Predict the structure.
Amino acid sequence: MIRSELLAALAKDNPDLRAEEVEQVVDIFFDEISQRLAEGGRVELRGFGAFSTREREARKGRNPRTGDQVEVPAKRVPYFRPGKEMRRVLNDE
């Protein structure tokens, strides 16, 4: 599902909201999660899962076009851990 499909599904399930309102709520939701992660925080949605970041160490990589070795700097990457309820739904338990 892509963002536009999510917006359409939410608008269909909530006919009392205008499409613009649904889009605004979705934007705020994702912006808030992104901001919290950028600050080094964690976002937990009970039953669904938890968003956090993990540190990746610097490493040596290869340029796929030239084969030259390049330094890949350390960085933070987003991480999602599904909750128990989500795992049950996915595994039909």
In short: Helices lie at 3-13, 19-38, 84-90.
